[in-house]
Design a protein that fits this description.
eight-stranded mixed β-sheet; 8 strands; Rossmann fold; alpha/beta
Amino acid sequence: MQVERVAGEVGLHLETEGAGPVLCLAHGFGGSARNFRPQARALKDSWRTALFDLRGHARSEAPVAPEAYAPECLAADFGRVLDHLRVECAVVGGLSMGAGLALRFASSHRERVRALVLAAFPPGVGEAGGRHRSWALDFAAAIERDGLEAAGALYVWGERSGFDPGTAKLVKLGFLEHPPHAIVNTLRRVLAQQPSVDALAPELARLDVPVLVVVGGRDRLSLEPCRALAAALPHAEFEVIEGSGHVVNLAARDAFNARLVRFLAGLTDSR
């Protein structure tokens, strides 16, 4: 694995591994590039995987200005990574929030996207009964009021989360790596403003690239948005990995990797 720094107004932590065509992946909210390392290792003989910490997360810089966390700014960071790697066109994708940002980048920079890998696509405004938007806004307010550790225990890794103690500890350590102001701005500017699949439908119909949509069968948050997303895209493959929850690439690593390898092999065969 090679660690690099994408320079610019907001510095980004970047990890690359392997050789071949580029696959650029973005993690979900509260995560980091580490979350996709199992996929980078599985693909290293045939693909060059580029994993980066989103702005405001982990080892990337965290601007103070709230407007720096506009979704179009985070999505544009995909392009900055590709520019850094001197790559004109790549497969891009991500998990949850990262999937939403990858789709946004593809919609505005179609010429730079060869295909998409969208895992656990997040619910938008009005979907999931509006609970996800309310959760994001309430969590942001709690961080400002009580601090990230106390708010996180209530909204993310506490007793109500359903995590076993070991997993809860890892989730907590991951979240506390991020600056609180960045988490607040990401919650308000990105998660609480995610467009619904219905709102995205016109641009989805025009997205003429191969897309792999993957979701865990136990992912109550993303199962229906993923199903609707795959139906709205003209060239989508849809995969439900039974028994898995939201972080499907880690919870069902082998099944996810096998499906990803098959999708990427199809791209190579069709060249």
